[in-house]
Structures are given as C-alpha cells and as structure tokens.
Design brief:
single chain, about 475 residues, mainly alpha, two-stranded antiparallel sheet
C-alpha cells in the first residue's frame, strides 16, 4: 500500500501545476495546504458580504417591508470604517507586541468585532421591522441597534481582510503575488457561493426564528474559520528579548511617501470609479429579481451564487493572464468593457421579463468585477514598497470599500426617488413603475464604466512606452547591416 500511495502523491504533485490554477504559488517554506488554510479568512469575509448585501438586503426589503433607502443606508454603514483601512494597514506594518506578531492581532480583533455585530444583528433587524412584540418599540431603538450591528460587522471584516492580505503578501515572493491575489479572491467567492446556497436553503421557509439561527450560525463559523486561518501562520519577529528596532515613520510620513509613487493617485481614482460602477448593482440585483421578475427568496439568493461563480471564473482568468506577464492596466480596462454588455442585458430583462438575460448579465457582472478587482489589487501589491505592503493594501481597500459603500447607498436612494417620481404614470418605456428605478441605476453604472475606461488610457500608454523602452536596439547590439534589411 505504501509504494502505491507514494506513486499517487508523486503523480498528483507532477500534475498539480498544470491542472490546479494556484498549485505553483507555493514555495518550500509555504505549502499549498498552509496557504489554503490562511485563505479561510476570505471565506468568512465572503460569507459576511453575502449575508449583508444579498440575503439580509432581500429579507429586509421584501419580507420585512423596510424601505430600500433605509436598507441601503444600513448596508452601506460599514463604509464609515473603510477609510481607516489604510491606517490599519500602516499599523499592521509597524505593530509590535510581546509575542512578536504584526498581522495576527489585527485579524483576531477584527474577528471579535464581527462576532459582536452578528450577535445583536438578528434582533436589531426584527425590532427595526417592528415584527412581533417589537411593533410597539420606539423607532430609534431598531434603527440605532441595527446601525451598530452593521457597523461592527463591517469594521471587523475590513480589519480582517486588510491584515490577512498583508500577511499573505509577507509570506509569498513578489513574483507569486498575482497568483496569491487570485487564490485569495477565489476563496472569497467560493465562500460567497457556498454561503449563498446554504442561506438560500435555510431561509426557503422564512421565519423570524430561522433568521436568528442563520445569523448566529454565521457568527460561530466566522470565529472558527478565522482561528484556524491564523494558527501558526506568522513568524515572531523580532523574537522576544531582541533589541528594539529603530522607530518607524509616522502615518502622515508613510502616506506622503506612498502618494509620491508613480500614478498612485490616478490608480486609486480608477479603483474608486470602477468599484462604484460594479457595486451599485449589488444591493439591487436580488430585489430586482423579487419585485420585477417575481422570484422567491430562495431563487434570488442563488443569484449571489451565480454572481460568485462568475467571479471565480474571472479571478482564474486574471491569474492566468497576469501570471503570463499581462498588463494589469490593460486588464483593468477590459474588465470595465465586460461590464457594458452585462448591465445592458440586465436592463433588457426589465421590459420583457427575460430571466435568461438577467442571469447572463448577473454572471458577467461577477466576471467583470472579479477581473477589475484582481487587476487593480495586483497592480497595488506589485508596486508597493516592501515595508509598506499593509499601507498599500489598506489604501486600495479603503478606496474600494468606500466607493462600494457610497455606491450602494446612492443606488438605494436613487431607486426610491425614481420609482416615487414615475409611480403615478404606471409605466416607463414599456416597463412597470417598480422597474424604473432599477433601470436608472444600471444605466448610471454604464456611464461610470465608460469613464473608467477613459481613465485607464494614460496608464496603458505609459506601460506600453516602458515596454518599448526596454526592448534592446538591434543596431546598438552590433547586428550586421545585411541582417537588418
């Protein structure tokens, strides 16, 4: 049996890099199993995204009757903490503790924030909706408690993801960063897919008690998986008792140095524009399926799984292209171009009730968003100084999360305003009044994608110019004249 097992392992190892997209990201000091275990923090972040943006968004609007603008505001509350991701990244770069860890303490603190938010969230939602015995409770109690719950969960997820990605950057060489980004975000989307299917099945027969069970279960899973992810990952540096290192620069000094990098500000602007273009649909896709197409809670929750599947394909595609030396800026532009037909298909589904067009558009939105996120994050990781990995990832995360939160809040408010203004007419270009607000938001996303494409043009031209400048001149290399003709 032992020789057979050895042959099996040898065969699997030889086939791995060819058939497993991230098998070649490992090093002798970092096994694939350890890297996959570290990526479990992305699974919990994906589960949190599904719960906040997908499942609870639909349940609060349709089943609980909470206005979409208020739901969008609650879902967007974590954006208040997003700008602090740059500070969290800087602190994890310079943090010193007796155990010699930098990243792990922040992952653990973020996990505790997530658990605390999940603990009060289901009861806060029921009070907010005025269900059961909460129908006589003052309105401000439900609003404030729900806001606190969403803010705590969002703050924890931001902290965990920023420190976790910085730790992954520390553990892998720079040439493997594109594959690391792909692996981490594939795990994020796998977590989204699995949790969307589980939440959809658990809430098929919706009841307030079942909602409490689902959210509390998510809290327990978050603590468990994050603890497994952190176990024996970060090396103690410096060891206890070693001489204290030199003082680190302040956050203001580190940020000023970071902003002096080439095209740093433009790259962050592109991240914000593209993220807003893709994220405005996040809070509306499931309600669109429920209100316009008449789908059930279980059916609309599965949309998140389809969106995540498109993201998995997108991240794998981006990992392959960037791993072969592709230009991250050009891939960023192509990702924005993918979003144009995606949102056009979603708009087309409204007047004709084309479920197939809506499904294909939903898949392409996930695919394009994954391409965009992978390309911009890879560009950030590869251009960050070694001593500013946390700050660079935090800056990317701050812009990305802030843009996503603003986009979701804006989309909910815009949907309500447009629907209210056209409701008296009953129809808008052959569409029901309930669909008008959704279509307006999707059209605005197309405009933002066009602006994003235009913003990437200078970066693509500069990158092309640098590649041409590095090509050796045959004349200067001493090539014979007859061979040049």
């Amino acid at each position: 049996m032992k020789p057979f097992r050895q042959r099996l392992i040898s065969t699997w190892a030889s086939l791995g890099p060819g058939y497993l997209p991230f098998a070649d990201v490992t090093t002798p000091d970092l096994s694939l199993g350890r890297l996959l275990r570290l990526s479990l923090f992305q699974v919990t972040v994906g589960m949190t995204l599904v719960l906040l943006v997908g499942t609870l968004n639909r349940v609060m609007i349709v089943e609980c009757g909470v206005p979409a603008s208020l739901v969008a505001f609650m879902v967007a509350l974590p954006v208040l903490f997003a700008p602090f991701r740059a500070l969290i990244g800087y602190r994890s770069d310079t943090h010193r503790c007796e155990l010699g860890w930098r990243r792990v303490p922040f992952i653990w603190k973020g996990t505790l924030w997530q658990f605390g938010g999940f603990a009060i969230m289901p009861f806060a939602i029921l009070v907010l909706a005025g269900k059961g015995q909460a129908d006589t409770a003052p309105v401000w109690i439900g609003q404030s408690s729900a806001a606190l719950a969403f803010l705590m969960v969002g703050a924890g997820a931001h902290t965990v993801q920023t420190a976790g990605l910085a730790l992954a950057t520390d553990l892998t060489p720079s040439e493997s960063h594109p594959k690391v980004v792909g692996l981490m975000y594939v795990m994020l989307l796998l977590g989204m897919m699995a949790s969307a299917l589980i939440f959809g099945a658990a809430l098929a027969d919706f009841s307030p008690g079942r909602l409490v069970q689902v959210i509390q279960g998510a809290a327990v899973v978050t603590v468990t998986l994050n603890a497994i992810a952190m176990w024996k990952q970060e090396t103690r540096r410096p060891p206890r008792g070693a001489a204290a290192p030199a003082a680190d620069p302040s956050f203001a000094e580190s940020w000023a140095q970071f902003c002096t990098g080439e095209d740093t500000v433009r790259r962050l602007v592109i991240v914000g524009l593209g993220t807003m273009a893709f994220a405005m649909a996040d809070v509306l896709l499931e309600p669109f399926g429920g209100q316009v197409l008449g789908w059930s809670v279980s059916a609309t929750t599965r949309l998140t799984a389809l969106f995540a599947f498109g993201g998995v394909v997108g991240f794998w595609t981006a990992s392959v292209l960037l791993g072969r030396g592709g230009d991250a800026y050009r891939l960023t532009r192509n990702a924005a171009l993918v979003g144009l037909p995606a949102f056009a298909l979603v708009i087309l589904a409204a007047p004709y009730g084309l479920s197939s067009a809506f499904l294909v558009g939903n898949f392409l939105i996930g695919f394009g968003a994954a391409l965009f996120g992978h390309a911009t994050l890879t560009a950030t990781m590869t251009r960050a100084p070694a001593d500013q990995a946390g700050l660079a990832l935090g800056a990317w995360g701050a812009v990305q999360a802030t843009a996503a939160g603003v986009a979701m809040a804006l989309s909910g408010a815009l949907r309500d305003i447009v629907n209210a203004s056209v409701h008296a007419a009953g129809t808008l270009q052959g569409m029901a009044a309930d669909a008008a607000g959704y279509v307006t938001v999707y059209a605005l996303e197309i405009v933002l994608l066009l602006v994003t494409v235009a913003a990437t043009v200078p970066l693509i031209r500069r990158a092309a110019g640098r590649r041409l400048a590095t090509v050796p001149d045959p004349l200067s290399a001493g090539e014979p004249a007859d061979r040049l003709g």
